[in-house]
Amino acid sequence: MINQIRADFYRQLHTRGIALMVIVIAVYAAITCGCQAPGGIMINGQTKLLNQLTENDWSIYDGVRGATLSSSILLYLFIAFFVIVIGYEFSQHTYKSTLVSGASRLSFVLSKYVVMLIDILAAMVWYFAVTLVTGMLAGRTLGSTIGQLANFTGTSLFVITFFISVVFSLAIIVLIATKSLVIAAVFVVVWPVGLSIVRLVTAWHWLIYLDFFNAATGISLRTLSLNDAWRSVTVSLVLLIVSIVASSMIMRKQEL
């Protein structure tokens, strides 16, 4: 498993797409913070906060809050990680060589998830770092204590990373089951938008536990109740474990 992870990181270091994505993330963070223009996939409480942010001049703390609200857009950029880490191997069928060499299906799937988790975490660190630097260069006030700013930034960083990784763990199942990179990529795109629309139309409260992006921003910005926050995390953990195990089981039943 360690060798698989090393191989994936080596391949990424020699992929131009990763460098391009780093630049795009920096530009997006700088524009969002510098121009005070937050956006993203959001509903209800997040929309109210969006209106508050757009009506006032930002502090550095507000910049991080705006970046948190806007982070759902990053999902579409992170599809590149999914393609490079696992999608390309399935489209070219090179994953079979790894399995034939003795790697178990479970270790294969788990290693892919770990690599994407680390990729997403590193990208989110870069995203918030650019946001903070942009606020400082703009000469804005802190807007809170250093401790509060660090706590909020750290919470947003890890919560958003976790929930985004859950979406991609589900995409792995779709990819393995269908063997179609296109279908898996479409799933990633449709999931957050589709759930937000269905939730708005039906007003089914339980959908919040599957609406990972609004749950992530809700936990970070404290617009989500404590009970709903814990339930969202619990459901996501269960889905994450099930997706990894189910993906390996599906692979076992498929012919190489």
Coarse morphology: globular
> What is the gyration radius calculated from CA atoms?
19 Å
Number of helices: 11
Q: Write down how many β-strands occur, each being a DSSP E stretch of 2 or more residues.
A: 0
Strand content: under 5%
Q: Distance between the terminal alpha carbons, to the nearest Å?
A: 19 Å
Average pLDDT taken over every residue = 85
Largest sheet: none
Describe the structure.
The chain has eleven helices and no strands. By secondary structure, it is mostly helical. Helix 5 packs antiparallel against helix 9. The longest helix is centred in the middle third of the chain and has 33 residues. The model has no long low-confidence stretch (mean pLDDT about 85).
SSE diagram, text form:
Layout: H1 2-13, H2 16-34, H3 45-55, H4 60-70, H5 74-92, H6 95-100, H7 105-137, H8 146-178, H9 181-202, H10 212-221, H11 226-253
Keywords:
single chain; 256 residues; mainly alpha; 11 helices; globular
Question: In a few lines, what is going on in this structure?
Answer:
By secondary structure, the chain is mainly alpha-helical. The protein contains eleven helices and no strands.
